[in-house]
């Protein structure tokens, strides 16, 4: 039970909810409290210290401990005794203990009993503290108050373990701090204490005394736990938990610095404003997020803020640079800001803000004169000519052609250095510095700026350049190029951009080359945003023909690549021929990037065909070049593809490494994380954790739905359904895979090698007592796979067809087919698929009562998985095939006749679940449960739940397969 002004606990299923990213910290905090009894949680405002304290209090309460919660207020610091009075008042209204241990006659003791048990002078002092009695002219008796508070806490701790949480130590008034410090010194270890402190919030604020409050105890190194910012991936999880858009997780993490409160404010501002994806770079400038940034900066004095403004204006801020720019106290100011959690300093004096919204807020709130003077000062001291030109241009608001030309030259220098983001910023600055009388020059520079922003994936700069250009009397060709730049920065999120496509088509009338470029973008949109590959192929054909007619080999190659992708998707035999044409044009044109190019599609075709050695060799040749000179999107594309190839090859550690690098680059660049999460789901399925794989697949599905990306929505749902199936969550697996089936049919997908959902759906149908529907799925895909020569797709169909035979009582045929299929998977270089077939073989051999053969199959599977580093599959092979322990022999073998779905239901009902509870657990209707239970009774020749439980008890090791999902699939 809780005592005092204790916030409500938000408990989840199975216990109190753990704040996102804080499980390890909570475990450490628990250990510290049980070892030493004292812990100090510290960290910047908004990092989640109170959430951690709430969670540890919930754990204590769940163990039956009493919790005292003391939350101070900002006004308490100036009110003598305020915090101590609040603590005493909360004890007075509490009830502690239960049963005969406590009060006379077995009644629970109340806080009033504790207070009444104090000696007379102490009771009188407490009454004065709580203003229940007048305070004499000389003030209250401090010694009596000290002893009273110590006595109260000792009495509580003697009755049962007590956890005292003091939230906001820095706001506690000195008198209360002195009383509590004395009391804690005298209390036993049964009273454990968590103090929550935001350092420097008082010490360095305006008008502060310059020193922080004294601690409640002398903390040791073990007592102090810093609550760190969340990682980018944890920010994504936090956004999903709060039903906020997760597709911006990387940019929100960068803007918030991992501060949960700030991240949620940014996410809510984004959701409330319904900011389009291509405006995402500006998301940190809105509403509540800006106010929170001002609160964080509010702890800095005006002098410190002046130093921080110079750091915000500089490209590469350092203490020495800021000192030379006119701030002689730069080192002291920056050290103060670091203690307040606003910046971090390296040994060489480099300065980095802890959250991206802080420098943007400093610049936003500064007046023009302050910004101009700061840039002018920096221009005089920087040693890089590119930075010097940038600061000179930003120090004036008077357009000047000579200056604009210098900035344009600086943009070219930044481009040659490979700093595409700076090049994009300078290109736009050059355009904005161009005088209005130079109309044509300004428009030309705006076009260059938009296209430079597209190369740098800076959507905000592309939109700014395009908006400026479209407000002027620009030629249709320039308007088209600006709009195409905006489209090229939209990433996966191409929904709600129809107006841009329409205007681009109108303005490209009569210009064949531009019309080809617009048609190319439409081809991409039709497949990603509209899920219409037929229309996408038609647009790609038009684009290629138009580009070839004017000798534009670059656009023609890209259009042919899109067409080849659609041809394969639609099952056309022309796919490889078209891809070869695109590749030939690329060899002449030699494009700078690989994303959406023929080279990467050639690798993906090798992946689809399971020519994994070829795919790996080509990737290994490209990766060093892209890492050295390519764009971040190129690197992400290659790492994603490499992760898929290595996971398929059974090189699980390499797959996890590549997928992790892809996600890190994605979040750092602020791009949509859906594709990277999908790759990580595949890698985790192969060699990490099924639970993490399911989590990443769900995140990918949510991000893809937010983006309106049909392609990756199908892929992520496939990854989720596959994990659900192999972990025994067959009901959810069937629902998820049916969504994949519906989505692929809606997109007219034909080639089964690009997303191998057919075999997974068929297996889920067999597990859910729908073998004939499973046979129909296999019968539908097999002729297509044979026509297209997709041999390993046919192997997957054979594996599932064997399960169909086994479900129909033809175990002998099933065993022969599975053994042959496992061998052929091994010959095809697909070790994980071989191991999966061997697990299925072990299951069938057990049904045939061939225990030795089953054990040999399982051992062979375990060997395959161990060599590949496939940890989750190895754990699966270490158990029996259905996730159950090895059963004891049965007299009639009737249990062997149950399907996996029937066995799962039988186990639930045998353990006492009602029909309604079983239906809810399995996501079935009650009628389906009743019908399935009738078949189970018939097969086992039992007539009641009691007899069913008795039949199951003969197999003591049986248990239901694990269910990872916490609800139906994303949708």
From TrEMBL:
Domain HTH luxR-type span(s) in chain numbering: 891-955
Short name of any one Pfam family annotated for the protein: GerE
Cellular component terms (Gene Ontology): cytoplasm
GO molecular function: adenylate cyclase activity; ATP binding; DNA binding
Highest taxon, organism lineage: Bacteria
GO-annotated biological processes: regulation of DNA-templated transcription
Keyword entries, A-Z: ATP-binding, Nucleotide-binding
Signal sequence interval, chain numbering: none
InterPro entries documented for this protein: AAA+_ATPase (IPR003593), AAA_16 (IPR041664), P-loop_NTPase (IPR027417), Sig_transdc_resp-reg_C-effctor (IPR016032), TPR-like_helical_dom_sf (IPR011990), Tscrpt_reg_LuxR_C (IPR000792), WH-like_DNA-bd_sf (IPR036388)
PANTHER family noted in UniProt: TESTICULAR SOLUBLE ADENYLYL CYCLASE (PTHR16305), TRANSCRIPTIONAL ACTIVATOR DOMAIN (PTHR16305:SF35)
Name of the featured protein: Helix-turn-helix transcriptional regulator
Lineage: Bacteria, Bacillati, Actinomycetota, Actinomycetes, Kitasatosporales
């Amino acid at each position: 039970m809780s005592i005092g002004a204790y916030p409500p606990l938000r408990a989840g299923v199975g216990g109190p909810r753990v704040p996102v990213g804080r499980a390890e910290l909570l475990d450490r905090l628990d250990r510290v409290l049980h070892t030493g009894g004292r812990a100090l949680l510290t960290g910047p405002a908004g990092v989640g210290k109170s959430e951690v304290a709430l969670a540890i209090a919930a754990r204590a309460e769940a163990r039956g401990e009493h919790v005292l919660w003391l939350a101070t207020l900002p006004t308490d610091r100036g009110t003598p005794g305020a915090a101590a009075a609040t603590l005493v008042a909360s004890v007075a209204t509490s009830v502690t203990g239960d049963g005969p241990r406590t009060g006379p006659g077995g009644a629970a003791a109340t806080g009033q009993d504790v207070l009444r048990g104090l000696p007379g002078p102490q009771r009188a002092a407490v009454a004065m503290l709580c203003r229940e009695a007048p305070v004499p002219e000389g003030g209250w008796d401090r010694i009596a108050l000290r002893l009273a508070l110590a006595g109260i806490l000792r009495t509580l701790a003697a009755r049962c373990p007590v956890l005292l949480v003091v939230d906001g130590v820095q706001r506690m008034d000195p008198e209360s701090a002195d009383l509590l410090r004395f009391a804690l010194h005298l209390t036993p270890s049964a009273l454990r204490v968590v103090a929550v402190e935001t350092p420097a919030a008082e010490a360095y604020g305006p008008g502060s005394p310059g020193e922080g409050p004294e601690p409640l105890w002398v903390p040791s190194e073990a007592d102090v736990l810093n609550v760190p910012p969340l990682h980018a991936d944890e920010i994504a999880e936090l956004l999903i938990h709060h039903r906020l858009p997760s597709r911006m997780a990387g940019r929100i993490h960068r803007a918030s610095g991992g501060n949960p409160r700030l991240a949620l404010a940014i996410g809510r501002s984004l959701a409330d404003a319904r900011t389009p994806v291509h405006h995402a770079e500006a998301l940190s400038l809105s509403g509540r997020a800006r106010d929170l940034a001002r609160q964080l900066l509010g702890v800095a004095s005006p002098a410190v803020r002046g130093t921080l403004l110079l750091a915000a204006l500089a490209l590469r801020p350092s203490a020495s640079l800021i000192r030379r720019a006119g701030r002689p106290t730069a080192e002291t100011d920056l050290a103060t800001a670091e203690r307040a959690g606003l910046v971090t300093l390296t040994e060489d004096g480099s300065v980095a803000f802890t959250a991206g919204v802080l420098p943007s807020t400093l610049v936003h709130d500064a007046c023009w004169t302050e910004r101009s003077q700061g840039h002018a000062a920096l221009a005089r001291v920087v040693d890089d000519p590119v930075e010097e030109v940038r600061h000179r241009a930003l120090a004036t608001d008077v357009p000047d052609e000579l200056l604009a030309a210098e900035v344009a030259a600086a943009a070219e220098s930044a481009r040659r250095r490979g700093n595409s983001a700076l090049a994009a910023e300078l290109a736009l600055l050059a355009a904005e510095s161009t005088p209005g009388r130079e109309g044509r020059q300004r428009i030309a520079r705006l076009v260059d700026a938009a296209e430079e922003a597209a190369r740098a994936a800076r959507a905000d700069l592309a939109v700014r350049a395009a908006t400026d250009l479209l407000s002027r009397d620009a030629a249709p060709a320039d308007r088209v190029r600006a709009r195409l730049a905006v489209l090229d920065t939209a990433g996966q999120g191409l929904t709600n951009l129809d107006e841009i496509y329409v205007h681009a088509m109108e303005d490209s009338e009569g210009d064949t080359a531009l019309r080809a470029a617009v048609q190319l973008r439409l081809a991409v949109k039709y497949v990603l945003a509209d899920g219409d590959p037929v229309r996408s192929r038609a647009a790609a054909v038009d684009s290629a023909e138009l580009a070839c007619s004017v000798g534009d080999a670059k656009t023609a190659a890209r259009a042919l690549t899109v067409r080849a992708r659609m041809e394969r998707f639609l099952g056309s035999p022309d796919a490889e021929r078209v891809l070869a044409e695109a590749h030939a044009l690329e060899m002449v044109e030699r494009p700078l990037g690989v994303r959406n190019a023929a080279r990467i599609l050639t690798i993906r075709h090798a992946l689809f065909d399971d020519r994994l050695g070829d795919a790996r060799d080509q990737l290994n040749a490209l990766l060093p070049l892209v890492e050295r000179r390519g764009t971040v999107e190129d690197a992400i594309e290659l790492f994603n593809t490499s992760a898929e190839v290595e996971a398929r090859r059974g090189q699980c550690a390499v797959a996890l490494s590549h997928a992790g690098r892809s996600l890190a680059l994605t979040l750092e660049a602020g791009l949509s994380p859906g594709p990277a999460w999908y790759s990580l789901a595949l890698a985790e399925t192969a060699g990490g954790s099924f639970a993490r794989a399911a989590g990443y697949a769900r995140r990918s599905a949510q991000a893809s739905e937010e983006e309106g990306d049909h392609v990756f929505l199908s892929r992520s749902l496939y990854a989720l359904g596959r994990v659900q199936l192999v972990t025994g969550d067959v009901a959810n697996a069937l629902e998820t895979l049916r969504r994949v089936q519906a989505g692929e049919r809606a997109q007219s997908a034909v080639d089964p090698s690009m997303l191998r959902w057919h075999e997974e759906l068929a297996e889920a149908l067999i597990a859910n007592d729908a073998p004939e529907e499973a046979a129909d799925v296999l019968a539908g895909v097999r002729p297509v796979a044979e026509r297209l020569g997709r041999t390993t797709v046919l192997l997957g169909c054979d594996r599932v067809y064997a399960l169909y035979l086994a479900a129909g009582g033809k175990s002998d045929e099933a065993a022969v087919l599975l053994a042959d299929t496992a061998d052929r998977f091994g010959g095809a270089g697909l070790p994980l698929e071989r191991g999966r077939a061997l697990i299925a073989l072990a299951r069938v051999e057990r049904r045939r009562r061939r225990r030795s053969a089953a054990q040999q199959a399982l051992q062979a599977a375990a060997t395959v998985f161990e060599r590949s580093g496939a940890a989750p599959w190895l754990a699966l092979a270490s158990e029996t095939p259905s996730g159950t322990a090895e059963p004891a022999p049965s007299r009639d073998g009737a249990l062997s006749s149950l399907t996996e779905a029937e066995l799962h239901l039988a186990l639930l009902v045998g353990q006492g679940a009602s029909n309604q509870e079983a239906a809810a657990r399995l996501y079935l209707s009650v009628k389906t449960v009743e019908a399935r239970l009738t078949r189970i009774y018939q097969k086992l020749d039992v007539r009641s739940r009691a007899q069913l439980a008795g039949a199951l008890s003969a197999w003591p090791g049986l248990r239901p397969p694990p269910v990872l999902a916490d609800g139906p699939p994303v949708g």
